[in-house]
Design a protein that fits this description.
With 238 residues, this protein is of the alpha/beta class. It is built from 9 helices and 7 strands.
């Protein structure tokens, strides 16, 4: 069987996997990342896990068709709970979910991260939730990438244990850096600008809707927050 062509976002994820790593792909979908990790990054072993039986069966079939059944285990289950100490996982990939869900998976599976040396995380939305979790739990963000694939913009965050505060600068508000990404703020490529132009428009629409709302402490706070986010977005996309 011919190997599937990786979408751009997954290719970027695979490039972040160290040569010879032992990889767990949580929410593996069709098993593309673990197969590429073994073939291209010479991963010593991999675990492909998914909470849904259908995608996991598709992954198992693809892994078998690539002749890699002996190198990649498939596990049905939720989050990091499918992993054991004997797996000796050093790299965890979680991609294609919301940032809140990814943060929940990391939080609920913290005991399974003790031997892990690298996290590669690709949220579809709410990357700031992941940055906050990394900061609060002693994981240092070492790289951020952002790319546009078809009509979607994806962020990919890579982190290692230790010095969680290192990427953040005192000159900028922490909330702003968590929202936009400390590294991405320095680069501000076209995908970054496209993402935040769209977000700014969404925030402006919500703000316009709130203009007719009954003034309460909650709506006033929300308006203040939206105005701050819009001002930051206008700053970073110019």
């Amino acid at each position: 069987m011919k190997k599937a062509v990786l979408p751009d976002r997954l290719a970027v994820i695979v490039e972040q996997i160290d040569q010879g790593a032992v990889v767990a792909d949580i929410g593996t979908d069709h098993g593309l990342v673990p197969v590429e990790a073994v073939v291209r990054r010479e991963a010593g072993h991999a675990v492909a896990a998914d909470v849904n039986a259908g995608p996991l069966q598709a992954a198992s079939d693809y892994i078998a068709a690539c002749g890699l059944t002996g190198k990649i285990d498939t596990r049905l289950g939720s989050g990091l709970t499918v992993l054991t100490e004997n797996d000796l996982i050093d790299t965890v990939v979680i991609a294609g979910m919301g940032g809140t869900l990814i943060s929940d998976i990391l939080e609920q599976g913290r005991e399974h991260l003790r031997s892990v040396q690298k996290l590669i995380l690709q949220p579809n939305v709410s990357a700031d939730r992941i940055r906050r979790w990394l900061l609060d739990n002693g994981w240092k963000l070492i790289r951020e990438q952002i790319l546009k694939e078809e009509r979607h913009v994806y962020e990919i965050l890579t982190a290692v244990p230790g010095e969680a505060e290192a990427p953040y600068h005192q000159q900028e508000p922490l909330e702003k850096q968590l929202l936009f990404g400390p590294y991405l703020l320095g680069e501000r490529n076209n995908a970054f600008k496209d993402k935040w132009m769209r977000e700014k428009d969404n925030w402006q629409q919500i703000l316009n809707q709130l203009a007719n709302a009954v003034p309460t402490e909650q709506t006033t706070a929300k308006k203040r927050k939206l105005n701050q986010y819009i001002a930051w977005a206008e700053e970073v996309i110019t």
